[in-house]
Design brief:
Shape: globular
Strand order of the largest sheet: 1-6-5-2-4
Order of helices and strands: HEHEHEEEHEHE
Number of strands: 7
Strand content: 15-25%
Structural class: alpha/beta
Mean pLDDT: 91
Helix content: 25-40%
Distance between the termini: 42 Å
Largest sheet: 5 strands, parallel
Low-confidence stretches: none
């Protein structure tokens, strides 16, 4: 038996449920940029969860800045609870987006995490405010 198939795949219905659940937690940069380009952002808001220096250097256009360690009832007062907040940070190796999404969810907000963070966004060639050259040397402050 091959290494690939040493553990048999799940039944299709189980696999469908698993992958649908996974998609409930993450947003793909391709999907987000399509919505941004179409002006169809009424249902979600991007939230940058890294530190202020990183946000000042490079960010996704239209994102609000809220470092994950500052998420609380005061900093989110007035946020629309009908929106889904899509948190992002540096990359898959950074967990600031996960921490931010967890904190927002604990406050009762609906959340997703942007797959791959701003590095995946940049790798796809999508627009940023600031610039890719500004990303280097900025700690993610996770």
């Amino acid at each position: 038996m091959t290494n690939t198939l040493r553990f048999p795949p799940a039944e299709p219905s189980v696999a469908a449920a698993f992958f649908a659940a996974e998609l409930a937690f993450e947003a793909d940069p391709d999907d987000v940029v399509r919505d941004l380009r179409a002006g169809d952002t009424g249902g979600f808001r991007l939230v940058e969860t890294r530190g202020a220096e990183a946000f000042a250097r490079v960010r996704i256009p239209g994102a609000v800045h809220l470092p994950h360690w500052e998420v609380d009832e005061v900093t989110t007062a007035g946020w629309d609870r009908d929106l889904v907040y899509v948190c992002y940070c540096e990359s898959s190796e950074c967990n600031a987006a996960t921490k931010g999404a967890a904190a927002l969810a604990a406050l009762g907000f609906r959340v997703k995490r942007l797959s791959g963070g701003i590095r995946a966004w940049l790798a796809a060639g999508y627009p940023v405010e600031g610039g890719e050259e500004n990303l280097h040397g900025v700690a993610c402050a996770c």
